[in-house]
Amino acid sequence: MNLVAYLLSVVLLAVSQAFPDRRDPAELIKSQGRIVGGFPVDIKDIPYQVSVVKYGSHTCGGALISSRWVLTAGHCASSSNTPLLGLRVGSTDRNSGGQLLKLKRVVQHPNYNPTIIDYDFALLELQEDVTFNERVGMVSLPEQDEVVEDGAQCRVSGWGSTQNSQESSRYLRAADVPSVNQETCQAAYTYFGEITARMICAGYKQGGKDACQGDSGGPLVSDQKLVGIVSWGFGCARAGYPGVYARVASVRQWVTEVSGI
Predict the structure, then answer these.
(1) Less CB within 10 Å around the terminal CB: N or C of the chain?
(2) For the chain, where are the alpha helices, taking DSSP H only?
(3) With contact defined as beta carbons under 8 Å apart, do 157 and 173 qualify?
């Protein structure tokens, strides 16, 4: 290989690493969980937060929207893996405590597109109603197409690696981040594809606070309403790349059609 060809191969490799193909969701979805730059919280402060459990271990987050239904990400659950999934509710510890509940069914959004991570929603129906208490509660939903103002304060929560050896990944953590308008978010993700109307973005321009792998499916709450579901993003808490969430208001009618809520 001559010198020119070698240098070109190095440049192409660098570009491919800097801008992974948007069509490969494994590079982007936040499916293994962590809150970066956050703080510890007690489940009593976020009683709607649940852990989606697969083979007995935490795999995704979710949000209780009634005594029978949980909303999570489409890439976290499908009808085919219903028997493998359960829910842990009412515990700050992702590995123990609270209640372990069985699922009756999983309803993935019919338009879920794993290639571009669009319509990233799934509804989980419990076999029995959960009993609400100070550690188990539900979160309110927005109206269909309800707008989140630019810069609105949002809280994202979940479990997982924190990228900090001094911060345990076992216990629930949260981070407060501002919403980011579609135009700004689209400009940040030009190399990854479209920020669709089913997505909402949140994060700081300088990075430092974000959801990450394993927080997938978890809640983004603003003004006491579930405005987003942790979906995807480039890296975790990187400057210039806000987190991308599934926009709950865009599918509010579908939630009602399926769950009656």
Answers:
(1) N
(2) 3-18, 182-188, 252-259
(3) yes
Secondary structure element (H or E) that encloses residue 228, with its range: strand 225-232
Catalytic entry in 51, 58, 120, 169: 120
The pLDDT tens digits of the residues spanning 135-172 come to 999 999 999 999 999 999 999 999 855 544 454 567 89
Given 31, 51, 66, 75, the catalytic residue: 75
Q: Is 75 a catalytic residue?
A: yes
Task: Tell me the one-letter amino acid at 85.
Answer: L
Q: What does the alpha-carbon distance between residue 214 and residue 35 come to, in Å, rounded to a whole number? A: 9
Strand residue runs (E) in the chain = 33-36, 39-40, 49-54, 57-64, 69-72, 85-89, 99-108, 122-126, 153-158, 173-180, 199-202, 210-213, 219-222, 225-232, 243-247
- Retrieve residue 255's tokens: 């939630």
**Model pTM?**
0.85
Q: How confident is the model at residue 240 (pLDDT cuts 50, 70, 90)?
A: confident
* Residue 58 annotated in active site: no
134: tokens are 């100070």
